[in-house]
Amino acid sequence: MPAPARSAAAAATRLDQVVALLSGRSIAVVSGAGMSTDSGIPDYRGPDSPPRNPMTYQQFTGDHEFRRHYWARNHVGWRHMDAARPNDGHRALAQLERRGIVSGIITQNVDMLHTKAGSRRVIDLHGVYARVRCLNCERLVSRFALGQRLNRENPDFLDSVAPAEGVEIAPDADAIITSTAHFRMVDCEYCSGILKPDIVYFGESVPKPRVADAFDLVDQSDALLVVGSSLTVMSGLRFVRRAAKAEIPIVIVNRGITRGDEFATLTSNAGCSETLTALVDTLPSHL
User: Which of 165, 199, 233 is the last residue in one of the domains?
Assistant: First the structure.
């Protein structure tokens, strides 16, 4: 009993420190995959996550068979991501924004759960699962519309794969399945170009206007709160570095260490949902 009591006391003390640091400040938020684990979407690098090898842009564009295999998996995975619902952490951030405390969210996730929860200023740094782009003519179509086309070409695919193998979904809406040889892929119906989810893959760069918007959000805020991100890749870490250079206080809430810990004013090894829900109850409104 003594050890859990000490642990609970330490967690309460750390939350008090987070509240004291953030109180009265306009907060920009950077969220990562750990934000969505309570919604049933696994993260990439959490303590309990299996090893993953995310697909690269070069693999997708350079190999027809690899691309077909990916679209077969995505045809299963995007539906599960579409069915995911915001958790208490997402709802807490939306409430903090309505109360004038959170100035906006820069999310590394593609699941759109911040938007579904009601957050208004959301910068989808890596894109979203629900759109598809043609790499030739740049037309955008909804993932739902593409799903209908793929259903017509593969009428029995979903029934044949999911029950036999079960479904594990990666954070980029990729379903972990292997039986894809019988899947028929489609191309852009306007120009026959290659279709790609409107997601920034490894090996791609985030569009410059999107990065500029995110930097503006950080610059206009009084504090930076990172939730559920290991900050392993530069796309998220750069905002922590930006805040540190401007001497903006940085709080990192994540299960495990992060690449940004050296820049943080305060770190908390805690869950996103529990911490954000507690902040709703303790931070004073700015309105």
Answer: 199
